[in-house]
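Translate sequence into structure tokens.
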Amino acid sequence: MSAENKALVRRWFDEVWNQGSADAIDDLFAADGVAHGLGEDLHGPGGFKPFQAAFRNAFPDLRIEVGRMVAEGDMVAYDWTATGTHHGHLMGMAPTGRGASIGGMSIVRIRNGQIAEAWNVFDQLGMFQQLGAIQLPV
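Result follows.
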């Protein structure tokens, strides 16, 4: 089961994020699924699709690479790196044309071949620094 769950996570990133397939969200995210840590909790495919569309619009060349993965039972934990160029509006910020590389970690719970729950953390501060929206004091 662990190998199947890892494969599902890799499919999620390949299809939903790297290929930009909103239809894959319907296949891979449970109707009652919940994603935490991306702002307000996102419920079901209908709640997740606007988030995916916003990021894909902001970073049309978005590429997410999954690094290390650990699976046990119905849970998979992994780290990832997202790279892309900021060409669309994001969280009220106009396009900058700048590139960004953002690291994150996630844990998902798989149920019946779909993501039932996800917990996410990623370097939002670093993203906004790279895009020039935030400058830290020196």
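Note: Helices lie at 2-18, 22-28, 44-58, 124-130.
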